Amino acid sequence: MIRILVDSTADFSLEELNARNIDMVPLNVNFGDEGLQDIVDLSMEDFYERLIHGDVHPKTSLPSPAAFLEKFEAAQEAGDELICILLSGGLSGTCQSAINAKEMLEYEGIHIVDSKSTACVIRLMVEQAEKLIAAGKSAAEIVEVLEELKSRSQIFAAVDTLEYLQKGGRLSKAA
Description:
Distance between the termini: 49 Å
């Protein structure tokens, strides 16, 4: 069986992940000393509420290789292949964390796809992978299609304010 794994930056709610049988490894979100797992302990709505009205600016951190290793071992034990569609390696070390976990396990049934993007592009890639799984394609064939798909995908975004980009360190005050 071919399964899909994403990180919590994918554009899915926890309920949707469960209903579609998609595995997820959450990123960590810290509000000061309070550590939460994205999507698991902190919904998108709660995150934005705290961002706008809270006194503490959040910091995120990538999942550990151990978080991925747990999912990888479960796939190996079940004899499943796992296609991991993850947040861009240019934005986070999440993909590298998964690669490190794969190297620890040395199981060929793990396929890691750096989406080179986030959110809606990951969702698009997951939806394509689901269609290909249903059509009986192999994991290798699916990964090949996803690699081609990401080369044609772009996200354009507009923000209401640069305040949070500056607070998060993505933008200097001078810029």
